[in-house]
Specification:
It is built from five helices and five strands. It has a three-stranded mixed β-sheet, with no helix packed on it. Strands 1-2 form a two-stranded antiparallel sheet. Strand 1 and strand 2 form a beta hairpin. About 40% of the residues lie in helices and about 15% in strands. Bound molecules: zinc ion (2 copies).
Length: about 120
């Protein structure tokens, strides 16, 4: 079975230029294509797309989950003022060595750095 109309609209919304959208933002975008789509349908399709590995869910401390069209391993800078989420790559470097020295094996990492972004700083 291919993509249902709803699932395609949800996927298209995640792929839209809105970077790391929340479920509410995805709902608003999907509604343009399917005006009668329900929020429950959007959530259900987001969960399916995540478990199929097509998109990635980013859990935000103290905020709604975001969804990422880029499923390759990468880290995020999160602006505490405007909520902007920016991709970047943390070099695990000696952090990995320090963890493995203690007898652990690093499988993956997912770093979130909370910051105030350049745009918000410029406003102050
Ligand atoms: Zn900001
Ligand atoms: Zn990302």
């Amino acid at each position: 079975m291919g993509l249902t109309k709803q699932k395609k609209a949800v996927l298209d919304a995640v792929m839209s230029p809105a970077d790391h959208p929340t479920a509410d933002e995805i709902y608003a975008i999907a509604k343009v294509t399917i005006p009668n789509i329900g929020l429950g349908t959007v959530y259900r399709n987001l969960n399916t797309l995540c478990s199929e590995g097509i998109i990635r869910k980013i859990e935000m401390p103290g905020g709604p989950d975001r969804f990422d069209k880029d499923i390759s391993p990468h880290d995020h800078m999160v602006c505490s003022e405007c909520g902007r989420v920016i991709d970047f790559q943390v070099d695990m470097g000696d952090l990995k060595d320090r963890i493995e020295e203690r007898g652990f094996k690093v499988l993956s990492h997912n770093v979130q750095v909370v910051c105030i972004c350049d745009r918000c700083l410029a406003k102050e």
